[in-house]
Amino acid sequence: MPIDLKNLTIRKAHEALVKGDYSAVDLAKEYLEQIKKTEKDIHAYLEVFDDVIDQAKVADQILKSGKATLLTGIPIAVKDNILIKGRVATSASKILENYKATYDATVIEKLKNEGVVFLGRTNMDEFAMGGSTENSAYGPTKNPFDLERVPGGSSGGSAAAVASNEALVALGSDTGGSIRQPASFCGIVGLKPTYGAVSRYGVMAMGSSLDQIGTFGKTADDAEILFNAIRGNDKMDSTTLPDKKSEENFSVKKLKIGVPRDFLNIGGIDADVVKNFNESLEKLKKLGHEIIDIKLPNLKYSLAVYYVIVPAEVSSNMARFDGMRYGKRVSGANGIEDYFLSRQAGLGREVKRRIILGTYVLSSGYYDAYYNKANIVREIIKEDYKVAFKDVDIIATPTAPNVAFKIGEKVDDPLQMYLEDIFTVPINLAGVPGISVPSGVKKIGEKDLPIGIQFVADHGREDKLFAISKDFLGEK
């Protein structure tokens, strides 16, 4: 029987697999066929794995044994900065070309235990630095809704794979919006969990105090199922939180939703995005939720704080990529020259820009003036959220100030590119969870370009995010 990939969810696929309507091999073949059809236009993947059918055969054995979980046999795409043992993992950088992972990331180990089928590794901005997937050393990914536009970034490949039915769900990483913004641009659901909810062991670090692995799906339920499979404390990552579920009950039909109106008046936001956001608030009111105006007075400093802290952490994390032990190596007259030539040839423009910025703000004489000040303001921003969540359950903003922009449009203007993160970076600075869900479209010519709304909750309250998202999207 033909499989309707467009409307397929994890639960629908699981039910069909258990009933025997089709096998995991049939499902995998359907996705491989779809990849063959659309991948030449989208370029969501850097590599489609050669053993997909073999993985599916193993999943079929688990299904026959009666020990299947919801995720057994489910085809998943994985961002190229997450290690899968024995697989190439490049973080979309030339400096790691042909590097093979020697171990599994914790999230991969957990998914292997569920019996998932890994389809391949997805394209991304090099070392997760960017908001458009144009910074990949292997060429840009294109938006499935308009091939002339970006899918967002840095997890643009994962978002585009799900949006174009080249994967049922996908993993991404989010340091300042790298899951939520591409989810918004590609019209799907993207979750950035609480910092520490998901282990980062086996994930190439960019900004260690902000990075978080998260999930993409066409539905909030799919994003939740995948999140529940990868979450949890990990002895290999000391920043992971203890395993405990929230005991506080709440009414799904009557949530208090805070709207930081002052922050929404910063300018530079597309008029259609603002209109759609206001319509979305009206929809939430009709669903029975209470809309409350709130103040987050220090959020306006978020972008400045973020672009001091992140380059500083990038500068430190990128020092390990020296061409000496693994990855690309260019030989020079001596060891120092090897180091410089390897990094010069192996790293892209945006990565170099952030290393230079980060080294500057960490240098003697500037550490206190920039880095320490940024960390002080970060704590003030965290406090703003803490105060706000005493009065509201959820905070709502647009996910991004604009719809997907054209490929090449902002590549030479880093400041304009950084402004795309205005609504997403504060959430990473505070360490709270956020989710982007589709809220409408903006028509440009004959193209309908997706718009997303972002919901934010207090630490550990992903349950509230999924509840409001399902209610908003009409999921049962």
What does the main sheet amount to? 11 strands, mixed
Can you give the mean pLDDT?
95
CATH class: Alpha Beta
**Helix/sheet category:** alpha/beta
Strand order of the largest sheet: 1-3-2-4-6-5-10-11-9-7-8
Instruction: Based on the coordinates given, report the CATH architecture.
Output: Alpha-Beta Complex
From the spread of the alpha carbons, the general shape counts as globular
CATH topology: Amidase signature (AS) enzymes
State the oligomer: single chain
How much helix, percentage-wise, in residues? 25-40%
Low-confidence stretches: none
How many angstroms separate the termini? 26 Å
The CATH superfamily appears as Amidase signature (AS) domain
What's the helix-strand series? HHEHEHEHEHEEHEHHEHHHHEHHEEH
What's the gyration radius in Å? 21 Å
Strand content: 5-15%
User: Total number of helical segments?
Assistant: 16
The number of domains is 1
Tell me briefly what this model is.
By secondary structure, this protein is α/β, with parallel strands linked by helices. It has helices at residues 10-19, 24-42, 52-65, 106-114, 156-163, 180-186, 220-230, 261-264, 271-286, 302-317, 335-346, 349-361, 367-388, 414-419, 425-430, 462-473, and strands at 45-48, 75-79, 117-122, 169-174, 189-192, 212-217, 256-259, 290-293, 394-398, 434-444, 447-456.
